[in-house]
What does this fold into?
Amino acid sequence: MSFLLDLIVDFDYYRLEIVVVVSCCVDISMKLLNIFVLILATISCKQKQNKDTSQPVEFFIHGDPLELVENTDQNRTSPFQENNLPSFASFALSGFIEIKQKSVVSAENRINGQAELEKANSSSGRTRFIEAPQYAFAKATETTYHYRASNVTGYPTLSFVKDSKGHLNLKTIASTQTSPVEPLHYSVSEDGFTFSILFTSEDSQGKKLTAMFFTKNFDQNHRRMKRTTSENFAFFLGRDKAIGWRQPLEVSICGKEALAQERDVREAINSWATSEGKISGLDYSIAVDETPRPFSDINQKCIQMIDQYRMEDQENLAELGSALVIINQFSQEIVSSHSFIFLAAHKRSFVKTSLVSTITHEFGHMLGLGHEFSRDPETNESLYDSIMGYSGIDQVKQRDREAIAALYPTANNTNPLTFINE
Ligand SMILES: [Zn+2]
It folds into this structure.
């Protein structure tokens, strides 16, 4: 089996309700949630390589991208040192996100209705597969190191310069051209299997905020999680890819804006739980952090509120929230997750969705669910009531609980969680 990179740039998750505005003849739609993730997938290698996949996933925004990391606890001390580089050798790029300022969406990306929105946010059908970029350090000069893909071309090379303390600090990113960058935040997971780098750069189009996530390629003795389910649930990576958290999930309510909405956030999270205080078989807890780490941090799973910032790429859409889920496809588990909730979008006149409802939906993604878009082929009605659909359901429904039970079985569940070596 070979590992391939599944560039799910699932424009995941716009949530839409079409509202006809009486005073004008335009259908107003809302989009809720963009997830842009590069994911490592274990799939057949017969897929054709897509030439465009070296491009990062781009968020489209109004405003300064640095607002997303304002008032965060940044760690700019590089974890990379000359003597620990071998421990960062067997990693693959598993997430690559650029957030840049733009003001006009290209005509071909414009979304005109519910069907287009669901298609754009479907977790099936948009998947492109390429060979996974395996990264390793290589010494270039006495003080310079490159971190680059060793098995495929077209991926950016990160260049680091050694300082007087022996730390390697990120200086440039090079793909078609070389750009100087300023690191904002480094994070390494406690088990050492995942790390992320967050940095800013500037090009002719303006300021950019870039996050890159790397996950360890386990050896063949590492246990891979495998969840089996007979039902056709909509999971994050698609209907046949049930991937969730391996460890208990501690979700944090991050930043002053989110803490001001703490009751809503707790209500949304707890609405997924059973009376035993677990989310099916998953143990979870809720923490609060007034000065959280930036969204790229591997060790903190935040629900964060963005006050003024807008993500919409067209005037008749409102992006209410967005979830970022990083998956290690080698070990088949979610390794990091972060959710942005856009407060200003909820105040737009045509938006009827409550904050609790948006947070509940986003948290469903953080747990590993995708969008439930199943429709009756004859009537075109939604087949299931689900908070993960776009049909105006505002709370967790039976279908959602069944999908969660398939991801996180309990002792009483007939879908046992199994560990296998592959
Ligand atoms: Zn969604």
